Amino acid sequence: MTAANGDALVLVDDLKVYFPIRSGLVMDRHVGDVKAVDGVSLEIERGETLGLVGESGCGKSTVGRALLRLYEPTAGRITFDGTDITHLGEGQLRPLRRRMQMIFQDPYASLNPRHSVGRIVGEPLRVHGRGGKGLGKTIRELLQTVGLPADAITRYPHEFSGGQRQRIGLARALALNPDFLVCDEPVSALDVSIQAQIVNLMEQLQEEFALTYLFIAHDLAVVRHISDRIAVMYLGQIMELSPADDLYDNPLHPYTISLLSAIPIPDPEVESRRSSILLQGDLPSPANPPAACRFHTRCPYVQPTRCRDEEPVLRPLEGHLVKCHYAEDVKAGLITPKQREAVFEPGAAEPAYEPPVV
Amino acid sequence: MSATRTPLLTVDDLHVRFGTSRGLVYAVNGISFDIAPGETLGIVGESGCGKSVTSLALLGILARNGRVTAGTAMFGGRDLLKLKDDELRSIRGREIAMIFQDPMTSLNPVLTVGKQLREPLEAHFGMDKGQADRRALELLEQVGIPGAKQRLRDYPHQFSGGMRQRVMIAIALACEPKLLIADEPTTALDVTIQAQILELLRTLVADRDTALMLITHDLGVVAGMCERVNVMYAGMFMETGTATALFAQPRHPYTLGLLQSVPRLDSGRRQKLMPIPGSPRNMLSDPSECPFAPRCRYEVEQSRQQVPPLEEIEAGHQVRCFNPVPADEWQRQRLGGAA
Question: How far off is chain B from A227, nearest CA to CA, in Å?
Answer without folding.
Answer: 9
